[in-house]
From TrEMBL:
Superkingdom of origin organism: Bacteria
InterPro entries: Desiccation-related_membrane, RRF_sf, YtxH
SUPFAM superfamilies: Ribosome recycling factor, RRF
Name of the molecule in the record: Gas vesicle protein
Species, as recorded: Chryseobacterium defluvii
Length: 116
């Protein structure tokens, strides 16, 4: 993942941890019964867990999409490079064969002249 993605994940984790700590501290100092406070803390923890799962799902989908895009772009670029190399090879191969044929004909002609 990119450096930006790591920073985003760190910020997200920090925000969630801060929110959780704030909720817990607020409830602990609230003038309510212990049983009710514990129930609220549990409910808020479950809410935060659900929010974290949702954010994880969103981030995961974004990462998968980016991977898919990068993978497709890489494959397309690799195919383009392969075709370019093959076309260049075919072009120069034909030129070399043509030149070699011309040289062979010239050498044969010289040999025939020397034989006479």
């Amino acid at each position: 993942m990119s450096r930006k993605g790591n920073n985003t994940a760190g910020i997200l984790a920090g925000l969630l941890a801060g929110a959780a700590a704030g909720v817990v501290l607020g409830m602990l100092y609230a003038p309510e019964e212990g049983k009710e406070t514990r129930k609220k803390i549990k409910d808020k923890a479950n809410d935060l867990k659900d929010q974290a799962k949702n954010k994880y799902g969103e981030v995961s989908e974004k990462v998968k999409d980016q991977y898919s895009n990068i993978s497709s772009t890489f494959k397309e670029t690799a195919n383009n490079v392969a075709h370019t190399v093959k076309d260049g090879y075919d072009k120069y191969k034909d030129q070399i064969v043509s030149k070699t044929t011309d040289v062979v004909k010239d050498v044969e002609a010289e040999l025939n002249d020397l034989k006479k």
